[in-house]
Amino acid sequence: MQISQLSRRSSRSGTTGPIEPVTARGTSATRKIGLSVRGRTFIAVGLISLVTGLVLGVVDLQRVGVLLLVLPIPAWLAVREARSHLRIGHAVTPPRIQVGERAEVRLILANPHAFGTGPLRITETVPGGRTVRFSVAGVRGRQRRAVAYPIPTLPRGRYTVGPTAVVASDPFGLVTADTRSSDTAELIVQPTYSHLAPLTLPIAWRDGAASLSHSVGVGGSDDASVREYRHGDDLRKIHWRSTARTGAFMVRQEERPWHGESLVLLDTRAHAFPGATTAEHGSDALEWAVSAAASIGCHIAERGRRVSLATSDGRLAQDESSGILDLLADVKPALRADLAPLLTSLNGLGRETSVFAILAAYDQAALTEVAAHPRLPGSAVAVLMRPWTWMTADRDLAREEVWHAAADALRVAGWRVVGADVGDDIAELWPTLLSMRPGVMANQVYLNAEVALSQATVPMMPS
């Protein structure tokens, strides 16, 4: 796209300064160097002037012709020499943003040669396949110039800024060199996520780990359960054996935080989310699911617990919020009908592993497979989405029936389940999700079934 306002602003905002080593990272290759229209005009006028001067015997006209013919030669040498040394670098600030935020690109032009360059016409490739064109007055010898321009808001994904095409010319505009730089920069647009309330995370009630701490002196050595004495410590906790061995007062450290493990499952099947029919185009419902997974994963990681995130296409990220957000930035609709990668992640989980699942209630068969992996009551929670509500406000009784059947199956298998519709906020659902007791819900399911059976009409047997 041609942006004249951006061109004028970029030219004014350019800064110059001495060359720094970081600016010389980009390499450039000259694809074409030749005379411009003005240069060819000089050659033509020079030939005419020279021939006319020789025919008419006018010495001054001959001198003008020779000057016009010779002038493009030093211009060609200057452009070739200066352009071959020009280095181009990119810097995106910040390199990672969330959906809705803006980033800025700084294009750095460095000229380590002693001679300056003439005017530069720059064509920059920006995310989305668009181009930005602007002009720079040139770069002096052994100087650098930085040109900044903003990037418009982009959807979630990973983008490349560059490469850059530069057309350089001499101050008279007689010779041009069309070159391309190989330097690029990466911009990662991460999903937005909400800050969740610091509530007690789900764990297995039968594991006795609800306190999120355990004694470290029961099964470990004395060295693992003591630390140096600090002012204010209870003198009754001094460990005299370790004190005698180390020569410094040591106190018993009876408890330490329990760093449990958590697994976040994200359903990204294309056919389960209306509108996400291809691997390149998502939907509003899928974006909500990605943001919900980002919110839960980052919340767990920031609380110091080990966390893994798995998607329907087999991608996996672990432990750090940045790695989780980077993985979710790359998530595309998965072109598969089952949840096999998620089921694989569920296999072999430890008893202390908490499971958080973001699932779409599209087909009961796939969700029944998840319910076939029962969890200890309280160790697994599921956000069961109604993705069709993102497309229409009308009720779909058939899909509602699928949702209720899947929710009941998960609850019987020990899962806590909460529904998610269009307009819901994961931060508002979070307290409800963690406050639901799976045992009570499972009993309610069985109670509803018994009531339905008791109210059924039983035919009388003939006497």
Q: Tell me the span between the first and last alpha carbons.
A: 89 Å
Q: Could you list the spans in which at least 5 consecutive residues all have pLDDT below 50?
A: 1-13, 18-24, 204-224, 438-463
Net shape: elongated
- In what range is the share of β-strand residues? 25-35%
Total separate domains: 3
> How many β-strand stretches?
22
CATH topology of the largest domain: Rossmann fold
CATH class of the largest domain: Alpha Beta
Relative helix content: 25-40%
Major beta sheet, specifics?
6 strands, mixed
Count up the helices. 12
Mean pLDDT: 77
Cα-atom radius of gyration: 35 Å
Walk across the major sheet and give the strand order.
19-18-17-20-21-22
Structural class given helices, strands, pairing? alpha+beta
What's the CATH architecture name of the largest domain?
A: 3-Layer(aba) Sandwich
Description:
- The structure is a single chain.
- By secondary structure, this protein is an alpha+beta fold.
- The chain folds into three domains: 4-190, Immunoglobulins (Immunoglobulin-like); 214-257, no CATH class; 261-452, Rossmann fold (3-Layer(aba) Sandwich), CATH 3.40.50.
- It is 32% helix and 27% strand.
- Strand 6 and strand 7 (130-136) form a beta hairpin.
- Helix 9 (364-371) runs parallel beside helix 10 (397-412).
Q: Any chance you could write out the topology, listing elements then pairs?
A:
Blueprint lengths: L3 H10 L1 E4 L9 E8 L1 H20 L2 H12 L1 H14 L1 E7 L2 E3 L4 E9 L8 E7 L3 E7 L6 E9 L5 E5 L2 E6 L5 E7 L3 E6 L22 E3 L10 E3 L11 H7 L3 E3 L2 E3 L3 E6 L17 H19 L3 E6 L4 E3 L2 H9 L10 H7 L7 E7 L3 H8 L8 E6 L11 H16 L2 E6 L5 H10 L2 H17 L9
Parallel strand pairs: 4-12, 17-18, 17-20, 20-21, 21-22
Antiparallel strand pairs: 1-8, 2-11, 3-5, 5-8, 6-7, 6-10, 9-12, 10-11, 13-16, 14-15, 18-19
